[in-house]
Amino acid sequence: MGLSSKHLLGIKDLTKEDIQLILFTATQFKEVLQRPVKKVPSLRDVTIVNLFFENSTRTRFSFELAEKRVSADVINFAASNSSAAKGETLLDTVNNILSMKVDMVVMRHSASGAPYFLSQHIDAAIVNAGDGINEHPTQALLDAYSMQEKTGRLEGLKVAIIGDIMHSRVALSNIYLLKKMHAEVMVAGPPTLIPKYIKEAFDINVTYDIKEALNWCDVANVLRIQLERQNQPLFSSLREYNIAYGIKRSLLDSLKKEIVIMHPGPINRGVELDSDVADGPYSIILNQVENGVAVRMAVLYLLSGQS
Ligand code: CP
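Above: the input record for the complex with phosphoric acid mono(formamide)ester. Below: its predicted structure, written as tokens.
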């Protein structure tokens, strides 16, 4: 049993069976993480490089911890303190690292398609840790794992993705995954932050009304406004965004129903989420981070061919 693909470039390329296998394998690894000795020898003698050309806290640490938990040898690369800062190309950087006999590459890059480009030029297995506004597949997998763990299902689950859909790789990977697993999806946010084609392209619901989205959904996955990817003003101010689209505790309490609040991080508190929501009883945000390690252990294990 293995994945249908040599790389994890995006959820778009995975089958439903691939996703089920990753989520099942993650359950086994989550059990390992509850033990006093949280380490297994599954990837002993496998060397993995973490290539981060863009900032990260959760994904970078989560991959590194996952790699260490499965006993891989790990090297870390940050563009800011490497020869990439002296003008070296991506391919030269990677080929130099691979000549040191590296087996797998985990890569984050600000350019959409960078992991795909790499996959055309090198033999090592590549895991996309987020590329531009394209995909963030391991985030969608850990989100799905967390939704399933909390609610017991993905099929038929109503998931609202709220916020800056236009610039979000998390939104796109979540939409691909949830549709493959037969969940129902709604996107919500200001009209300027939701692509016009999205309803027809993905057969999902669209609303510009936050209350409609929250009333409809079982799970709300709330996204950050990605100001670093916007080169023109798309809404009046962060304060007005919070008034119109910020998730407030009083709003959730007024729904009088069970609802799960998720966020991939980093959170802009007081913009898309108020602190008493992020830290309150509706939130499973830190469970998502915890589950990320088990999900990444599963992805690395399955792509390493050790299964
Ligand atoms: N969710 C996520 O990708 O967070 P980081 O940017 O901190 O890795």
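Notes for the reader.
Residues 56-59, 130, 136, 139, 264-266 surround phosphoric acid mono(formamide)ester (CB under 6 Å).
The chain is about 40% helix and 15% strand.
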